Amino acid sequence: YDATVRIWDCKSQSTKPIQVFEDSKDSVSSLDVLGHEIVTGSVDGKMRLYDLRMGMMYVDTIGYPITSVQQTKDGNGVLVSTLDSVIRLMDKSNGQMLQSYKGHVNTEYRIRSCLGLADSIVISGSEDGKIYIWDLLEGKVVESLAAHNGKVASAVSCCSPRKEWASAGTDGTVSIWGMTQ
Fold first, then answer.
1. pLDDT score at 171
2. How many CB atoms lie within 10 A of CB 33?
3. What does residue 97 show for φ and ψ, rounded to 5 degrees?
4. CA pair distance 145, 101, nearest whole angstrom
5. What's the confidence (pLDDT) of residue 1?
6. pTM
7. What is the arrangement of strands in the sheet containing 46-51, beginning at the earlier edge strand?
8. Residue 6, SS3 per DSSP
9. pLDDT for 181
């Protein structure tokens, strides 16, 4: 891995990136784009926010290797998953932790987490083979689901309009789940 973030102009025929960010000291493990901002998480334990309009970069040190980042729909927060079995909701404006989510296991694999139901819940896979769902504001586990035959549930992704989400596991399967709320 080259620890860079590269931006291409998809309308041009060029194979060369128009911009390259080389700020990470280790592999970039996750990236999320919302409007004119790019948020990255990397193995060096830092979350970087690139504001393309202002030409600025902001860095927050999380302290543990980051496995996933996702910005909230309002653009004010970032959900950050790390290899210390903690998911954090960070305030983008000042870098403070707004809430933490615990109960799952994430110490070895790159596990993805996401926000669902209009950013009211946090969903994450776990190395114990379960899918965990937390209330966003209270930080409490509201559901724990057995998944992927007890193998690592490594990724989740939400489709809010359909109130469905998908999980992928090291058992080689992808499961589609429905939300009742």
1. 87
2. 13
3. -80, 125
4. 16
5. 66
6. 0.92
7. 28-34, 37-42, 46-51, 56-61
8. strand
9. 56
Query: What pLDDT, on a 0 to 100 scale, did the predictor assign at position 165?
Result: 87
Q: Which tokens sit at 128? A: 């114990």
How far is 58 from 15, CA to CA, in rounded Å?
A: 28
The amino acid present at 175, given as its one-letter code, is: S
Each as own residue / partner, the long-range contacts of residues 161-164 (CB below 8 Å, 24 or more positions apart, any chain) are: 163/117
Which tokens in the block code for residue 119? 């950013």
Q: How many H-runs (helices) and E-runs (strands) does the chain carry?
A: 0, 17
Q: How far is CA 83 from the centre of its chain?
A: 12
**What pLDDT sits at residue 180?**
66
Q: For residue 137, what is the enclosing H or E element?
A: none
Segments of the chain with pLDDT less than 50: none
Spatial separation of the C-alpha atoms in residues 58 and 48, rounded to whole Å: 6
